[in-house]
Amino acid sequence: MTPQQLVIQFLLKNWKGVLIALLSLVVMGKMRFDYKQMQSAYEASEQSLQAQLAGLQAIHQKQLDDMEESLQSYKDTLDQVERDYQESQDKLLDLIDSRREEFGRQFSENPEELAETIISMYGFDYVP
Prior knowledge:
Elements: H1 3-13, H2 15-109, H3 111-122
């Protein structure tokens, strides 16, 4: 008998075992292929997530910078408003002091002129 006939005879006699072995090899090959596909999908997903994370961190940093800039602008504006208010208060106090001095001088020098000034300024009636 020739070697080819021996192989054919062996395959015919043990066809179930040979088929099981071949199918096992096919299943193992398919599993390895699927595993490689899953691994490459995982790596792509990981890279995508890292890119998204880097993008989110950049957006967060920009928001922090914008918030800091807005806060500094708010502080500067508040300081300017406080300075303007203080200046207006100082001017008002100076005006009040000058009016007191003027009224005091008018009262001592010419009380009737002071009465007319008060009547014209505030609309009071002068009762001596």
